[in-house]
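Predict the 3D structure for this chain.
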Amino acid sequence: MNCIFLSSFRKLSVRRILLNKSLENLRYRIKGRVLEIGAGRIRRPNRFQPHYDSVTNWTFVDISQERQPHCQCDVQKLPFYDRVFDTVLCLEMLEYVESPQAALEEIHRILKVNGILIMSMPFLHRWDSNTDYWRLT
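Done. Predicted structure below.
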């Protein structure tokens, strides 16, 4: 018996559909100076689109230059001053970082007091690379 899920037609996993829905509910919390970690300016298709009206600046960082981030860097050593971002998005990438604790300490350092961190990390997901280290509950 073959089963085909509707999400396969849309080329999105059920997990990604649920993440997009959650992000849609949070879209008005994304404001001010925004840092998106693990993303580049080349956007993925069918991805959540934020409400840009209350965003003054959106900076993309990624360890790889392939997706053309504004800044190529490691989340464990971010090249920004302390407390400069109002919102940080860290979506579906911490599983690839050797030390999520070091990454979260860096995010805390650059996030303004009362800033917002929007983070997601898969739990039940297939291993997909040699640098896929973590699944947290």
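The longest strand covers residues 111-120.
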